[in-house]
Amino acid sequence: MAIARDYRQADIDAKDKAMLAYAEKITVRQSDVSERDVAALRDAGWNEVEILDIATLTAYRNFITRIADALGVQLSEDLASLRKDYLDTLMVGKKLL
Predict the structure, then answer these.
(1) Cβ-proximal residues to 91 (8 Å cutoff; 6+ apart), any chain
(2) Sequential DSSP letters for 4-43
(3) 3-state DSSP call for residue 44?
(4) In this predicted model, what pLDDT tens digit does every residue of 37-55 receive, in sequence order?
(5) Which tens digit of pLDDT belongs to each residue from 61-72?
(6) What letter does residue 96 receive in the DSSP assignment?
(7) Single pTM value for the model
(8) Rounded to whole angstroms, how far apart are CA atoms 64 and 16?
(9) Does the pLDDT of residue 94 top 70, yes or no?
């Protein structure tokens, strides 16, 4: 699935690409997030409640990932039946138990 590899190259609309760019920035360069990033979401068609949802859900996912990483949590074997690209996305560098 192209979106799992690189959302920039995926066949999705500009609105979704703006959301994913914002989520990525919150994840990897959170100290660089500014009002311009929020304005870009508005310009792409997201409303204030949706922007709050995007920020909240992204931050929550990052929180859960960091807790799991800090505790050394790894995905269990019952998830081995998932497609490799999904697994790679979920694993965040971890190996399957």
Answers:
(1) 74, 75
(2) HH-TTTSS--HHHHHHHHHHHHHHH-GGG--HHHHHHHHH
(3) helix
(4) 999 999 999 999 999 999 9
(5) 999 888 888 888
(6) P
(7) 0.75
(8) 23
(9) no
